[in-house]
């Protein structure tokens, strides 16, 4: 099977396969460029596959504008600030209770 006499036919076959593949690619690329050119001429913007998926009502993802994202971040920041305030209140009440315990029973070690 392998030998010097099979090199030239193999090279020819793979060259033909490469020529056919490149020709198909060139034809498809020319069609795609033509559709893009007509889309630019008519000022219509075709959405990409991922944009269509994100805009679908079945998708768990959503495309956010900058304003929507900013509002969402502000809400999260507000929630974190509220949790910090609650934790600060708990810390201060615990400190007060430990001070009250120390004042009421000075002999008791902490």
Order of helices and strands: HHH
Question: How many strands in all?
Answer: 0
Determine the oligomeric state from the structure.
single chain
Please state roughly what percent of the residues sit in beta strands, choosing from under 5%, 5-15%, 15-25%, 25-35%, 35-45% or over 45%.
under 5%
**Mean pLDDT figure:** 86
Radius of gyration: 35 Å
How many angstroms separate the termini?
90 Å
Instruction: Report the major sheet.
Output: none
Q: Which parts are unreliable, with pLDDT below 50 for 5 consecutive residues or more? A: none
Q: Outline, from the CA principal axes?
A: elongated
Walk me through this protein's architecture.
The chain is an all-alpha fold. It is built from three helices and no strands. The longest helix has 39 residues, at 66-104. The radius of gyration is 35 Å and the shape is elongated.
Explain briefly what this protein structure is.
The chain is mainly α and 110 residues long.
């Amino acid at each position: 099977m392998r030998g010097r006499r099979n090199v030239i036919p193999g090279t020819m076959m793979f060259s033909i396969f490469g020529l056919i593949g490149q020709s198909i690619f060139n034809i498809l690329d020319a069609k795609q460029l033509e559709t893009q050119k007509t889309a630019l001429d008519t000022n219509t913007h075709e959405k990409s596959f991922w944009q269509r998926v994100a805009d679908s009502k079945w998708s768990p993802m959503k495309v956010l504008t900058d304003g929507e994202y900013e509002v969402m971040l502000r809400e999260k920041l507000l929630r974190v600030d509220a949790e910090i305030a609650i934790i600060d209140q708990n810390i201060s009440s615990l400190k007060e209770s430990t001070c009250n315990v120390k004042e009421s029973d000075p002999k008791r070690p902490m």
